[in-house]
Amino acid sequence: MSRQQHIARTFVELADTLVEDFDVIDFLQQMTVRCQELLDVTDAAVFLAHPPARLYSTAPCDPRPALRDVLEAARVEGPALQAHRTGKPATTDGSPAGADARCPEFDRQLRAAGYTRATAVPLRLRKDCLGSLLLLHTGAEPLCADDLALAQALADAATIGLLQAHGVHEQHTVNEQLHTVLHSRIVIEQAKGILAARRDIPLNRAFEAMRHHARHHRVLLSKVARDVIDDSLTPTAPTAGPLARPADTA
Question: Which CATH fold would you assign to the domain 3-169?
Answer without folding.
Answer: Beta-Lactamase (3.30.450)
